[in-house]
Amino acid sequence: MLRKSMPAELMKVLIRLHYPPEVILLCVRWYVAYSLSLRNLEEMMAKRGFEVDHSTVHRWVIKLVPLFEKAFRKHKRPVGKRWRMAETYMKISGDWKYLYRAVDKAGRTVDFLLRAHRDKAAARRYFEKAIDQNGAPETVKPMKGFKDFRCARLILSGHRNDAYDPERTVEKEHGTHQSTAEQFYSLMM
Predict the structure, then answer these.
(1) Does residue 93 sit in the same domain as residue 131?
(2) Residue 14 binned pLDDT confidence (cut-offs 50, 70, 90)
(3) Which UniProt keywords apply (predicted)?
(4) What is the tally of structural domains in the chain?
(5) In this structure, are 63 and 118 located in the same domain?
(6) Residue 86 is part of which domain span?
(7) How confident is the model at residue 160 (pLDDT cuts 50, 70, 90)?
(8) Are residues 52 and 86 in the same domain?
């Protein structure tokens, strides 16, 4: 049933990957939709009886995400007429890269651009492309940051994953090797 509803281009790629298409699609969807690492997915699939290496999942993501993006763009909901724009930077493989992003009032991504260097001309082309594909917005505002330091500290501390800090692992305390899931449950109980 799943295979009949898939685009032919996607099905051709899935057949060559030598895993059940349902497993491949689940791994790629979870990786893209949630904050899971490739090793998290490897562990989750092992719990479900599928031995999948994290590097295999990474190859699936690289092959399939462009196909998904192409298919989803045809069905993308229209974005709102009020956009927020942000320019930020992030470390990728130890190097700082620049991320330009537009989000509508409802939080839907209008478009984004990732660049190796800060580039005003590329940012302008990106903005013009977003307008061509989505129509001109009524208003464009800079993205709002945190309202105060305390709020930023609390929210960001939730993303640090202190429980999985290598210096504080359960392995050191108990002398046994535990998976991330086992560490989580032992720390929570």
Answers:
(1) yes
(2) confident
(3) DNA recombination, DNA-binding, Transposition
(4) 2
(5) no
(6) 82-142
(7) very low
(8) no
Type of residue found at 130: A
Last residue of a domain, one of 48, 74, 100: 74
In a domain, 52, yes or no: yes
Q: What is the dihedral of CA 149, 104, 131, 69, to 10 degrees?
A: 100
Residues contacting 3, CB < 8 A, separation 6+: 11, 21
What token pair was written down for 162?
């202190």
Residues 19 and 64 in one domain: yes
Which pLDDT score, from 0 to 100, does residue 164 have? Answer: 39
| Residues written for the chain | 189
Q: pLDDT tens, 74-130?
A: 767 788 899 988 888 888 888 888 888 888 888 888 888 888 888 888 888 888 988
| Structure tokens that stand for 80 in this block | 């709102």
Give CB contacts under 8 A, 24+ apart, made by 84-89.
84/140, 84/141, 84/142, 84/143, 84/144, 85/127, 85/140, 85/141, 85/142, 85/143, 86/142, 86/143, 87/123, 89/118
| Interhelix angle 21-33/38-47, nearest 10 degrees | 140
Helix axes 38-47, 54-74, angle to 10 degrees: 100
In a domain, 44, yes or no: yes
Rg value, the chain, Cα:
21
